[in-house]
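[step 3/7] inverse_fold.run input=structure_tokens len=142
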């Protein structure tokens, strides 16, 4: 992995001289290995502290997977919008899009990130509307 100057950092090898416990980004303490010769120790330590432990990373990935499965698919969300749905998209000065969708008495709003197109906001609005209105069987499906 490149260091701050763009040079390639190699994984250290050789004698381990210390194994202090260091807090990870998730708050758990884990052993960090100090090698006798390691010119990139500071960078490795900083990266180690910014990352979560393996267990917390696995839990996060699983939570994200379950959350993604709970959302209606793009096509399902768009098809479930009733006729008469009103959509308003606004392009912001930073290039991002924001939108509002109103259908059958339910109004949802969202903002996209810079670089994401208007379709991304439309799909997000449709998914939000399905979840909030309870239409399309999104709630309670196994």
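[step 3/7] decode complete -> sequence:
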């Amino acid at each position: 992995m490149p260091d701050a100057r763009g040079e390639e950092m190699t994984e250290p090898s050789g004698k381990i001289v210390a194994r202090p416990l260091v807090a990870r980004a998730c708050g758990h303490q884990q052993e960090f290995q100090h090698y006798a010769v390691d010119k990139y120790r500071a960078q490795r330590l900083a990266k180690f502290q910014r990352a979560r432990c393996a267990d917390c990373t696995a839990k996060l990935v699983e939570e994200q997977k379950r959350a993604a499965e709970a959302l209606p698919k793009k096509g399902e969300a768009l098809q479930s919008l009733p006729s008469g749905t009103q959509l308003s998209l606004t392009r912001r000065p930073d290039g991002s899009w924001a939108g509002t969708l109103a259908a059958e008495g339910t109004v949802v709003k969202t903002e996209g990130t810079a670089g994401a197109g208007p379709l991304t906001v439309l799909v997000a609005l449709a998914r939000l509307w399905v979840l909030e209105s309870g239409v399309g069987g999104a709630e309670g499906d196994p």
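[step 4/7] annotate
Residues 91 and 102 are 18 Å apart (CA to CA).
The chain has four helices and seven strands.
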